[in-house]
Design a protein that fits this description.
The complex is a heterodimer.
Chain A: E1 10-12, E2 28-33, E3 36-38, E4 41-44, E5 48-54, E6 63-64, E7 81-86, E8 90-95, E9 103-108
Parallel strand pairs in A: 2-5, 4-9
Antiparallel strand pairs in A: 1-7, 2-3, 5-7, 6-8, 8-9
Chain B: H1 10-17, E1 27-32, E2 35-39, H2 44-47, E3 53-58, H3 73-87, E4 91-94, H4 104-115, E5 121-123, H5 136-142, E6 156-160, E7 163-167, H6 184-195, E8 203-206, H7 225-232, E9 238-242, E10 249-253, E11 256-260, H8 287-293
Parallel strand pairs in B: 3-4, 4-5, 7-8, 8-9, 9-11
Antiparallel strand pairs in B: 1-2, 1-3, 6-7, 10-11
Helix pairs in contact in B: 3-4, 6-7
The chains are: A mainly beta, B alpha/beta.
The complex binds copper (II) ion (CU).
GO molecular function (chain A): copper ion binding; electron transfer activity
Subcellular location (chain A): Periplasm
Keywords (chain A): Copper, Electron transport, Metal-binding, Periplasm, Signal, Transport
């Protein structure tokens, strides 16, 4: 697990999110609210794009729990978003780099 | 409250600490005979006994935050600085989250406002200050007067008027599911740093996240804080000053007194009293008084106790 190679195919810049999301059927949304990733566990099929959106009035981050991290967002201020496509099946734990007690998991099937 | 307090046992020190005063955005500490004592912001006479030495703590200014309940964090920081300045403390400790997003413009604003005090100010980083380039912009700007405990490390110590001040960084290299983190290198440095001090040296440790566990569910603690505290155990007078939780908390354990200061930006809820630890919403007109009023400590029946009202409240 700790030695897992980087399996992620794309880090999509936040700017790309100005595309209409509804048009992308494969997107899965995770909301950050009240210092919680919601849902904290998402199960998606390979190729799905995940979008995290910060609805808190405090900044958060999305950081892979691997050391060194396999993925890491910029700091997300209120209403900022971070997107990433998960192409390879596996389990991806992550946390908030500012508030590490905030944790989530992505299961890709 | 005389000078003998310092050399007596923990019971007397505990007695002393029940007299501690709290101010909304700054706590003025006066050291007489090695024991830090708090004082009323805006009341310099009360805080500085003859031959004493006073210093101030400012925390969590969050310059860049501009939402409910505070759309003007520069103004509230400026108000805090003005009041601290009126006290004429020998130095100011800023316990982190100077900025909200580590942006250069936020650092510019904070540096200007805090610099206007004309009082020597020592900083440790909050997690909001270390978001860019591993924290280098913060370290280079706000810690340049100090030699770091290790190259690139945001921790250091200095001595002033007989007190050994230790500024620690517990906001970087945080681990999933964890709390604040000091790390091996910093702990090793701390051990070396303290080794050179006698047991009777008053120690003031300042760091952003509480070194003791205030509320783990909200991340309000430091994973390896106990290891730092073990190194401090032999000293007769240890004061640990933290921020991060935007409210006053205090605890005494043996010769160690723990305190957290309020924010100059916005209050946060008491542990477990809200779904999350985000900013508490208060009406704009009431912000300053709420910042100051919510956690006044009052112990009745003590003639040497002064009660502190919010220094920012109207
Ligand atoms: Cu967070």
């Amino acid at each position: 697990m700790q030695r897992r190679a980087l399996l992620l195919s794309a880090l999509v810049p936040v700017a790309a999110l100005s595309l209409p999301r509804a048009a992308r059927a494969a997107d899965t949304e995770v909301t950050i609210d009240n210092f919680t990733f919601s849902p904290a566990l998402v199960t998606v099929s390979a190729g799905t794009r995940l979008i995290w959106t910060n609805r808190d009035d405090i900044p958060h981050m999305v950081v892979s729990a691997l050391r060194p991290p396999a993925f890491k967002s910029k700091v997300l201020d209120t209403d900022d978003a971070f997107a990433m496509v998960f192409d390879t099946p596996g389990t991806y734990s992550y946390f908030c780099g500012l508030h590490p007690h905030m944790q989530g998991m992505v299961v890709v099937t | 409250m005389d000078d003998t307090t310092r050399t007596t046992n923990g019971t007397d020190r505990r007695g002393l600490l029940t007299c501690m005063l709290w101010a909304g955005t700054g706590v003025i500490w006066t050291v007489a005979g090695g024991i830090p004592r708090s004082g009323l912001l805006g009341s310099a006479q009360a805080a500085t006994p003859s031959g004493g030495f006073s210093f101030a703590q400012i925390s969590d200014s969050h310059i860049g935050f501009a939402r409910d309940p505070n759309t003007d964090t520069p103004a509230t920081l400026a108000a805090a600085v003005a009041q601290v300045k009126a006290m004429a403390p020998a130095l100011i400790l800023h316990t982190g989250d100077v900025s909200h997003l580590s942006r250069p413009a936020e650092f510019d604003t904070a540096e200007k406002i805090l610099g206007a005090s004309g009082i020597e100010t020592h900083y440790v980083p909050g997690e909001h200050d270390m978001l860019e380039d591993g924290g280098t912009p913060f370290i280079e700007r706000f810690q340049k007067r100090h030699t770091p405990g290790q190259p690139g490390g945001a921790f250091y110590s200095f001595d002033q008027q007989g007190i050994h001040f230790v500024g620690l960084n517990n906001v970087t290299d945080l681990k999933a599911g964890g709390l604040g983190n000091l790390g091996e290198a910093q702990l090793a440095w701390l051990e070396r740093d303290l080794k050179q001090r006698s047991d009777s040296t008053p120690i003031v440790v300042f760091a952003h996240i509480p070194l003791w566990t205030v509320y783990a569910d909200w991340g309000w603690g430091t994973d390896d804080g106990a290891r730092a505290l073990a190194l401090l155990k032999r000293f007769g007078s240890v004061t640990v000053l933290n921020g991060h939780i935007h409210q006053v908390m205090q605890k005494v354990e043996g010769n160690v007194a723990f305190h957290t200061a309020r924010s100059t930006a916005f209050p946060q809820p008491a542990p477990g009293t809200a779904p999350g630890p985000g900013p508490m919403k208060v009406e704009a007109g009431r912000l300053r008084s709420v910042l100051g009023v919510a956690s006044i400590a009052y112990v009745p029946g003590r003639s040497d106790l002064a009660i502190v009202d919010s220094p920012l409240g109207a």
